[in-house]
Amino acid sequence: MARTTIELRIKRQDTPTAAPYWEEFSMPWRANMNVISCLMEIRKRPVTRAGQKTTPIAWDASCLEEVCGSCTMLVNGKPCQSCTQLVDKLPDAPIVLEPLTKFPIVRDLQVDRTRMFEGLKQVKAWIAIDGTHDLGPGPRVSESEREIAYAFSRCMTCGCCMEVCPQFNDRSDFIGPAPLAQVRLFNAHPTGHMNARERLESIMGRGGLSECGNAQNCVEVCPKEIPLTEAFGELGRQTTGLWLKKLFGG
Ligand code: SF4
Ligand code: SF4
Ligand code: FES
C-alpha cells in the first residue's frame, strides 16, 4: 500500500551535557519530501505524535544541495546528507534520525565538527599565496592529474567517513580520513607541492597516517565517491620516501 503518512523517531538532546531522549512525530506524506523537509514541517508545528507541544528540532543545513555537508546526520543508522535523503527511498517504517556520534553534540541533530577542521589546519589544506596580484596563468596540469585532483576536491567535510572509521574516536588522536585525503590533493598541486614536506611531516607522527587500520569503511560511505584508500596508499609512498630522505640527511 502506498505511504500516506511519514513517521519519524528523533533522538534529541537539549544541551551538550544533557541526557538524550526520543520523540516521535507524524505528518502527511507528500511527493518528493526529503528528511530536511520533514524537519521543516515539525518546525512549523512542533507537536509530537502523541499531541504534546515540544520545542522545534535543531539541525544544521546550508546549501540544501549536498555541497556543504553540514546537514549530515544518521538516518536509520547510516550517515548521509539529510537534504538529499528522499523519504521515498527509505523503508515505509518510522524514520530514525540521530546526530553523528563521533563529534560532540551541540543540540539535537547539530554536532560540533571542529575536530575535522582542526585536522585540515594541521595538514595545511590550502595553497599558500603571497598576494592577490595577477600572477598570470599557473603551471599546466595534465588531464590525468586534473581528474585525480577533481575527485579529491569534491570533499565537503560532511564527516561520513569519520563517523564510520573505527580508528577515529574520542580515545584516539587519529586525524581521520577526510583531512588525510586533502594532503593527497594539495601535495599534487603544482604550487601546493612547495609545502608537501610540511604536510607529510604533519601526518607522520602520532595520530597520523600510520594509525589508519585500512578497514576501508570510509571509502564505502563517502557520498562523493572520493578514492580515500588510494590516497592513503599514495601518502604511504610519499611518507616512506620522505622518511628515507631524512635518514640520509635530506
Ligand atoms: S581505511 Fe579504515 S581506518 Fe583508515 S581511515 Fe578509512 S575507515 Fe579509518
Ligand atoms: S571524504 Fe567524503 S565522506 Fe569524508 S568528509 Fe569528505 S565528502 Fe565526506
Ligand atoms: S545542506 Fe549542504 S549538504 Fe545538505
Automatic annotation (TrEMBL):
Which biological process, per GO, is one annotated for this protein? respiratory electron transport chain
Task: Identify one Pfam family in the record.
Answer: Fer4_8
The residue ranges of the 4Fe-4S ferredoxin-type domain are: 146-177
| Keyword Ligase listed | no
Q: Which SUPFAM superfamilies match?
A: 2Fe-2S ferredoxin-like, alpha-helical ferredoxin
- One function term, GO molecular function aspect: 2 iron, 2 sulfur cluster binding
Return the EC number: 1.3.5.1
Q: What class of enzyme is it?
A: oxidoreductase
Give the protein's cofactors.
[2Fe-2S] cluster; [4Fe-4S] cluster; [3Fe-4S] cluster
Task: Give the InterPro entries listed for this entry.
Answer: 2Fe-2S_ferredoxin-like_sf (IPR036010), 4Fe4S_Fe-S-bd (IPR017896), 4Fe4S_Fe_S_CS (IPR017900), Beta-grasp_dom_sf (IPR012675), Helical_ferredxn (IPR009051), SDH/FRD_Iron-Sulfur (IPR050573), Succ_DH/fum_Rdtase_Fe-S (IPR004489), Succ_DH/fum_Rdtase_N (IPR025192)
Family the UniProt entry places it in: Belongs to the succinate dehydrogenase/fumarate reductase iron-sulfur protein family.
* Family annotation (NCBIfam families): dhsB, PRK08640.1
Q: What is this protein called?
A: succinate dehydrogenase
Q: Give the lineage.
A: Bacteria, Candidatus Eiseniibacteriota
